[in-house]
Write a structure and sequence with these properties.
8 helices; alpha+beta; about 25% strand; about 290 residues; elongated; seven-stranded mixed beta sheet; 13 strands
Amino acid sequence: MTPYKEFTTRLKLLISKNPNLITTTLSNIFTMRLVGNKTHGDLAEIAIAEFINQYMYDFTSIHVGKDLYRAKEHEEDITIINEISKVKFPVSLKAYGDGPLQLSTDKNFLLFPALQAMGDRIEGVDAIAKVWESPVFEDFTKKNVLPLIYDEKKQRCNILIFDYEKAKSAVTKIVYEQAADGSVEKKGQGKGRIHPVYRFYDKNNEYVFEVRYGSGTANALQRGLWTHTKNGFKYFDSITGGWIEYKHSLVLVRVLSHALLSTGKGHEAALAELVKDIEEQKRQQSKY
């Protein structure tokens, strides 16, 4: 079991015994969408790091921060330390709507060109084996991605972990699919996919995941390793045990607005009360 797999197993057990803890945290995270459509993603990194520190007694976490991006060795948002084994590992946290999910940006533009060199249709045991033997897919099963998936219309969320090993073993066919207009790269604006993809399918011809266009002309959201939480659902493991409903906390928005106008003295007083509330939750927590 990898260090990350051990962590997610422990997290799943904690949530199963104390669902209220994650429900409260996720509700507060997705309340941040009332502040701004992108705000929840950045604050989710801080919230999950603190969740680990407060409620998982055998793990600690550090929020890496955006200012360290250029120096990052991995696509990481938080670093987690197993306090028992002292093993440290990076985690990339994603807060996405229920649908397409980016697992890796492929910042060096390697995945798509490697598949292009193998042809438009790759199938058969030997051909698929060569894909996995390629150096660019060496780290495929080693990506530590923690996706917080939300369905805003139904106000529900799910922590869905993509099972790379299961997905890898299931692939029987890889197919090149052109852009919506049939070109290699669609110019201008408009609906539909604007870059080609390589889609990976299982023996039932069902979607597993995809690799998007890898040229430097594609931005980070148009390239890399992607999957889909609906189309590829059977290749995910739900850490929350399925969908959980959340509610927006309008009081939290008011707290933030007032905090932005307050002095450090006011922040300290508010923090003291928040710490008391967290400690009360910890006293009611069942050990996992």
